[in-house]
Amino acid sequence: MNEEQREQNLGRLIRAASAPAARPDPAVRKQTLQQLQAELRTAHRAATTKERAPELEADQFQRQQEHKIIRKETVMSTLVRNWRWGLGAIAGATAVILIVLSPSPKAYGKAISVMSNGVRAVARLTSVHLRGKLRTNPRENFSTIMPEQDFVSIELWKQFSPDLKWRVELPGRVAVMDGKSTVLFISPDYAAKAGPSRSAFDTQMYHEMADISGALEHEIAAIKTHGWPVTLTQEQGADGKPKSVVAIDARSGLPDSDYLKNAFFSTADTRRVYVFDEQTELLEAVRIYLHTADGDRLVFETEQIDYNEAIEPGVFHLDLPANVKWQQDMQVLPDNEKYAAMSPEEAARAFLEAVGREDWAEAEKFDSPITESFKQDRGGLQVLSIGKAFTSAISVINGAEFVPYEIKLKSGQINKHNLALKKDRKTGRWFVDGGI
Amino acid sequence: MSAVVQDRESIGMEAEATDELALVRQVAEGDEQALAILYERYADPLFGYIYHALDGGREEIEEVWQDTLSSAFRAAGSFRGQSRFFSWLCSIARHKIADHRRRNGIRQQNLSLMAPEDLVRLADESPLPDEVVNRRDVCLRVAEVLSQLPAEYRTALVARYAEGRSVEEIAQLLDKSYKATESTLSRARDAFRLALSSQPEADI
Questions:
Q1: Between chains, do B131 and A394 touch, taking CB under 8 Å as contact?
Q2: Which of A17, A92, A259, B21 is an S-S bond match for B139, by CB 3.0 to 4.6 Å?
Q3: What is the pLDDT of residues B74-89, one digit of tens each?
Q4: Which chain A residue lies closest to B117 (C-alpha atoms)?
């Protein structure tokens, strides 16, 4: 690889780690310094002049007041911050668009207008409710693309204030962040839990759409890095009103032969189209087309985006069925070494054969939990063949190995697929990460 | 990187480490100006570190960030300079994050940090996939490495790659000639790459 590419890689790493969102808000930053200096002053006085108790108390009172101000600003400035970051993003987007379009003052003014309006609108947001459709399997990961599948509905509710809460839902999979934790439920009986998160369980792309300044920021970083072409055009919407359309041709950088190429939005070559309504100043639609050998295929489209609607509190509450089984961390086994020494092919065979014997305790050493629905669907299967493990370019990140297999289910149906396996860091054992 | 350049980086870093130890001692004696200098140097990188480590809401990040800084400066007298000041700040931040998770009943999320040598090898061999670049653990490591570089190098790299500034603009920022700035950027990249390929400093 040449030096230029190497420099690009380093630059991208630095850019990602130094994103504007990873920096403190200037107002909070300034106040925090004042607060720290006040604390230092107080502590130093306390240490050196114990007899000056009244002054100390006054200082403590002042410190408490400053502390309150900081906390208040922290809450109040949440939306303002979105606005400001957006402006930074807009400046970048404008520059890029001007290069692609034309350096004329008219085009410049138009680009600024489109983006600035969208960002100003974002600043006033308290909630977003996005409804769309996606070509995928209803129980698959939220960012999985299955171009040959029919569309299924996908929905996001996001409340920005007073507390950040969100829900993303496919017909067979839902993730909810209620401010305290994030829960993933896969129908009919699987659940996993994590801490409060901005975008856990593969929901990031929908959050970026809900916060358009963040989405543009992400896009602009990618555009700068890869030199993706961007166009800005104007069209008339179905409602007869003028719309501004920003289209970005994104490339994953993965070779066509890669197993995961076009499997997820992050590994796909796509054309992403953002439509802004010039009157409401808001992002009105997103369309994503997958580039294929046969041409572009629409794989995602928003159908409606509602802003600032009151979201029922129940949306952020998840009622789980009584028989739900929760994802478990892997534990070191008494005979852990035996499993840790397995090759991916051996692990795949051991797992599938355990499922075939309906030896669920053994199967759970590779995939926990084993749900009742899985037992019913896969129990008693017969292993027909196990192939040689292979990897994707993405495997260098997560260590995933893919083992081809062929099985015959009790129903007589024959399935051919690739079992995704990853190694658990704590136990050193392979675990099933998908593909069954 | 040549041995000469590497030595120069080491000398630069040591000088800054000595300087920061003196500053921390001044803070321990109540010097607000010294606190402001350290704050200017490390407040933003610390925020970035917590941002990538916590994966929480904005307010949670700000709360942990403020608590970390407050605790660190209150305990400045206990800093002995056995590690870089920023590493010390990060170790306090890790405790604060763990406390925060415990208080809120959040299960510890283990970041499967990519081995530094793997990351550098990958960056040397092929265009990095977005999946790598945007990974939280990778961002965390890069943020940590950036913060450990001499301030001039950090400024130059962030201005160039995060803010997209031209060499001319960075030259103005650093008050250097164009040629000297190009040279600084080149050395900064080498230092960044070297630090990235080193093992992370152990927990303090």
A1: yes
A2: A17
A3: 888 888 777 778 888 8
A4: A396
pLDDT along chain A (436 residues), means of 10: 77 82 84 85 62 40 36 26 27 32 35 48 76 93 92 93 88 92 92 82 82 62 65 83 85 82 88 85 88 90 90 93 89 92 96 97 93 94 96 74 95 94 87 90
Residue with tokens 């660190």: B72
| Best CA proximity match to A25, nearest among A90, A88, A74, A69 | A74
Nearest residue of B to residue A193 by CA position?
B107
Q: Is A40 on the interface with B (CB under 8 A)?
A: yes
All residues of chain B having their beta carbon less than 8 Å from the beta carbon of residue A91 are: none
- Distance between CA atoms of residues B20 and B26, nearest Å: 10
- The answer to whether the CB of A384 falls within 8 A of the CB of A414 is yes
Interface of A with B in 227-266 (CB under 8 A): 252-254, 266
In this prediction, residue A114 carries a pLDDT of: 52
Contacting residues for B102 by C-beta, under 8 A, at least 6 apart: none
Radius of gyration for the alpha carbons in chain A, expressed in angstroms and rounded: 26
Tell whether B110 lies on the interface with A, counting CB pairs under 8 A.
Answer: yes
Domains and CATH numbers, chain A: 122-316 (2.50.20.10), 328-434 (3.10.450)
Whether A318 contacts A186, CB under 8 Å: no
CB A97 within 8 A of CB A111: yes
Q: Where are the domains of chain B?
A: 3-197
pLDDT digits (tens, 9 = 90+) for B95-139: 888 888 777 766 655 555 566 666 777 777 777 777 777 777 788
Peptide bond into B116 cis (omega under 30): no
pLDDT given for residue A372 in this prediction = 93
Q: At what angle do helices B85-103 and B58-74 cross, to 10 degrees?
A: 130
Q: Where are the beta strands (DSSP E) in A136-215?
A: 151-159, 165-170, 173-177, 182-186, 190-194
Unique residue bearing structure tokens 């920061």: B20
Bridge partners of residue A183, in order along the sequence: A176, A193
What is the CATH architecture assignment of B3-197? Orthogonal Bundle (1.10)
ipTM of the prediction: 0.75
Closest CA to A215 of A80, A27, A19: A19
